[in-house]
Amino acid sequence: MRAKNNRLCIYPKDIQRITGKSYRQSIRLVQKMRIKLNKLEDEFVSIEEFCQFTSLKIEQVEPLIIG
């Protein structure tokens, strides 16, 4: 049996899958979110913060990330 994957953070590859943008554009979006959220370069961006930033519903985003 497979364990449920409960991640808290989102990565550029996930954003690429959700938005259809290129990997490089997804990295830029993460950088832009970090600046707006006053996060350091090495801090993670959560899935919830991504959803608030992009005005997407977490119910729509999670199945695309977890699979």
> Could you name the ranges where pLDDT drops below 50 across 5 or more consecutive residues?
none
The major sheet is characterized as: none
The coarse silhouette is: globular
**What is the number of independent domains?**
1
Overall mean pLDDT: 90
Structural class estimated from helices and strands: mainly alpha
How helix-rich are the residues, as a percent range?
55-70%
Q: Strand-and-helix sequence, N→C? A: HHHH
Distance from first to last alpha carbon: 16 Å
Number of helices: 4
Give me the count of strands. Answer: 0
Instruction: Give the percentage of residues in beta strands.
Output: under 5%
Radius of gyration: 12 Å
What does it look like?
The protein is an all-alpha fold and 67 residues long. It has one domain (12-64). It is built from four helices and no strands. The protein has helices spanning 12-19, 23-36, 47-54, 58-66. Helix 1 crosses helix 2. The longest helix is centred in the middle third of the chain and has 14 residues, at 23-36. The radius of gyration is 12 Å and the shape is globular. The mean pLDDT is 90.
Which labels suit this protein?
67 residues, 4 helices, mainly alpha, 0% strand
Task: Break the fold down into its secondary structure elements and pairings.
Elements: H1 12-19, H2 23-36, H3 47-54, H4 58-66
Helix pairs in contact: 1-2
